[in-house]
Amino acid sequence: MNTSLFLAINAGPHPxxxxxxxxxxxxxxxxxxxxxxxxxxxxxGTPQHRGxxxxxxxxxxxxxxxxxxxxxxxFHPRPFMLGLxxxxxxxxxxxxxxxxxxxxxxxxxxxxxxxxxxxxxxxxLLAAGLAVAWARIYLGVHFPFDMLGSFVVSLLVTxxxxxxxxxxxxxxxxxxLTIYETMLAAAHLPPALFPRAPRR
Length: 200
Prior knowledge:
Layout: H1 2-9, H2 17-44, H3 47-73, H4 100-115, H5 119-138, H6 144-158, H7 161-186
Helix pairs in contact: 2-5, 3-4, 3-6, 3-7, 4-5, 4-6
């Protein structure tokens, strides 16, 4: 089933150039886009919102750690390592399951959704995860079950977001705000770069 789904989604020998360009853009730049979104939310957010961003980030790191642990005990080759489909994105021949890109985006999105306060941003991250899942299968570097594994990992680690949020706000948020404000002062920037709270 995994192979059949991959072959159904993977680009053919002569894919449309625009669709191929879109897939490459999503596969490479969705994760940096997620980072940029978090930086924007941090800059424009209140201390309460910034606490949620730290918690979501730690949840994402936990998700990637789970991926790493899975890779230590289970190795699954990528499609191009098995001679399946067509590859349109350069990638080292390492473990395919689960996808770090999808886990990164889905863990952040689900964590923000669980913590509240960022429904639009959470939706954007979850949608970006779906887009990355399609793009990396289309380009021949992942199987569909790799993405299913990432989805499950992201859901599981999100269960830690709420219990983690209180200690984060108590122990990590105050020094993080101090460091941030010190950096702004060193750069001669005002404490609030944007005077009005953003719409989320």
